Amino acid sequence: MVQSCIFDLYGTLVDIHTDEGRPEVWEKLALFFRYYGADYTAEGLREAYHRQVRELTEQLREDGAERVLSDAPEYESSPEIQMEEVFVRLYREWGVEADRELAVHTGQFFRSLSTDYLRLYDGVETMLSHLRQAGKKIYLLSNAQSIFTAHEIRALHLDRWFDGMFLSSDHGCKKPDLRFYEKLLNTYGIDRDTAVMIGNDGTCDILGARRAGLRAIYLHTNLSPDETVTEADVLIEGADMKRLEQVLLEDGRMAEKKS
């Protein structure tokens, strides 16, 4: 029987569209930086932002590789930076010593500027409520930045449903890195034989779950990559929460291969 349901977030429970490429996003963000003495142009800020993301990612990758023994075949170099550090560094480029609070608020302003919409897929709360009533444990395992996602989860009133939440920026690695899965399983004592991963990404969610010894349900939603997924125990077309609930509340064998 399925006892623990581990959900991805974006593209699985939450429908979102962001566009960081719009010029007006960077124009308004550059103005915000100038409020605090960091005299960026829109294009200069865009270039500095992407450079800092690359440098921090590479630094974390190198640090992680140094800590891993050479005989650890399951290791994947899937580092996850903390975006607030990017914004701290961007202020420092202009000699501004920004504290974490300002860096977080800057990041959240950036996120709001670039977000076109944020909403739950139809039927998500009903599905989660029925899982809870059936005694299932519900967890979140998401490749996401805490300074954005923790607040978006609260804004959508999703936090009340989870018995535990793991966001990749809090742990320095992300799916499909086996370490991220193992951290969640070990922290909450999740029995992998009675757990299932539900997600919309064939590599991060399905192959990652398989490597962690978990069963997997693939939702092919509007945010899924262009891919062919054959490794899932169940394939569901679209964000069909009624069908997902039915599968999770059945006898748990999930013997079917298509839905």
Walk me through the topology.
Blueprint (H helix, E strand, L loop, with lengths): L3 E4 L6 E5 L4 H13 L6 H26 L15 H10 L7 H15 E6 L3 H10 L3 E6 L3 H10 L8 E4 L10 H11 L6 E5 L2 H10 L3 E6 L13 E4 L3 H9 L10
Parallel strand pairs: 1-4, 1-6, 4-5, 6-7, 7-8
Antiparallel strand pairs: 2-3
Keywords: Hydrolase, Magnesium, Metal-binding
GO molecular function, one term: phosphatase activity
Protein name: HAD family hydrolase
Walkthrough of the structure:
The chain is an alpha/beta fold. 44% of the residues lie in helices and 15% in strands. The strands form 2 sheets. Strands 5-4-1-6-7-8 form a 6-stranded parallel β-sheet, sandwiched between helices. A two-stranded antiparallel ribbon has the order 2-3. Helix 2 packs across helix 3, helix 3 packs across helix 4 and helix 5 runs parallel beside helix 9.
Subunit arrangement of the protein: single chain
Tell me what portion of residues adopts beta-strand conformation: 15-25%
What would you call the shape?
A: elongated
Radius of gyration, in Å, reads 20 Å
Mean pLDDT: 91
**Biggest sheet descriptor:** 6 strands, parallel
What distance separates the N and C termini?
A: 19 Å
**Low-confidence segments:** 65-75, 255-259
Spatial arrangement of strands, main beta sheet: 5-4-1-6-7-8
Question: Helicity range of the residues?
Answer: 40-55%
Order of helices and strands: EEHHHHEHEHEHEHEEH
Structural class: alpha/beta
Find the count of extended strands (DSSP E, 2+ residues). Answer: 8
Total helices: the number is: 9
Protein name: HAD family hydrolase
InterPro entries: HAD-like_hydrolase (IPR051400), HAD-like_sf (IPR036412), HAD-SF_hydro_IA (IPR006439), HAD_sf (IPR023214)
Keywords: Hydrolase, Magnesium, Metal-binding
Cofactor: Mg(2+)
